[in-house]
Write a structure and sequence with these properties.
Shape: elongated
Oligomer: single chain
Distance between the termini: 30 Å
Family: Belongs to the peptidase M20A family.
Largest sheet: 6 strands, mixed
Cofactor: Co(2+); Zn(2+)
CATH architecture of the largest domain: 3-Layer(aba) Sandwich
CATH topology of the largest domain: Aminopeptidase
Protein name: Probable succinyl-diaminopimelate desuccinylase
Strand content: 25-35%
Pfam families: M20_dimer, Peptidase_M20
GO molecular function: succinyl-diaminopimelate desuccinylase activity
Length: 396
Amino acid sequence: MNNVERISILEKSISIKTDGHNEQELAEYFKKILKDHNIESAEILFATGRSNLIVSMGHGDRILGLTGHMDTVNIGPLSDWKSDPLVLTDMDGKLFGRGTSDMKGGLVALIIALIEIKDEGIDLGGQIRLLATGGEEKGQLGSASLLGHQLISDLDALIVAEPSRLSNPKSGKSTQFAIFGQNGVLDFEIISKGKSAHSSMPELGINAIDNLQEYMNQQKNYFDHMVQINDSVLGKIIPVNSIISGGEQINSVPSYAKLTTKVRTTTMVNANRIISDLEDIISEMNKVADMNLELNVLRQLDPVVTSKDSSIIKLVSLYGPEFFKQKITLRTVAGTTDAATFISENDRMDIVQIGPGNDSSHMANEYIFKQDFIDYIEFIKKIIVSYLNDELVKDI
């Protein structure tokens, strides 16, 4: 496949709008082009018009997983874009469009790599399994729907093609990272229940906002302490109060208030520890008359950490410079990917996040460097074949 053909697949993918819906249309497009190259694939629906796509190739005991998501964030105001976000636009070596960086560029590169491996008749020496998911941007819905389908538990390693390049606006160059660790996630809400009364007679009511404020003071003190605990790999937790709401009308004592908080967790300070500690705080506060607080966990994902000595990390570090003309920098990130969902079914597999996307993700005028996209296709083909070749892996 030449570069014009490669980019045409990305062009078509960008034209299919998948901002929180319609992944099935993109999955069916991928399914067609794969079938044109004698590669079978299967869809797994998780909602109306929304699906995951599963591709399997090769035979053998060693199984390498590849993953990327088909959905994007919303386009946002069209006036912020220099070009149509649903039309792949080539300007100064950059390919603009919604999803180019996060992460249709990486996903399309994986699909092209599989097609070219098939067309070139390369003997894999093992199995590849591509998990193209939907719904990643809003709750990892697609990846969660794949649990229990015997698609994850037998993977030896997983490559996540999420964006992992950092652009440099001054030089026009970008740095290629390989990410071996991701913070976990804890989303929770604290609900304060009070009693409504007329604002002229507040003594007859119970002010849910005031009670929530008392709790927030204690939560702040708690997190001020916990952020001092440094995880040797993932660093410190990152707590953020994201939403606060309450009250019914200005002339009434509020009977309800709610705080929503997100915490990027670590292995040292994990979600279970935080939940237990906050429940203890709430239990003590609820001993006071008129205090009625409760904690609800909205989402919980464990941290993802892979040893730098793992085969997949070593391969990425070894072959990266050949394709990216730079040393691969290993690092961790606070953000999370579908890998955090997948490890609930397989915490033994080694995981690396490395993709051609960059820090323009989620922004207006999102782009991917054309050369980064092309180089990544060649790179991932090399990694696939090398990882599945036992002799090459043993020599690392």
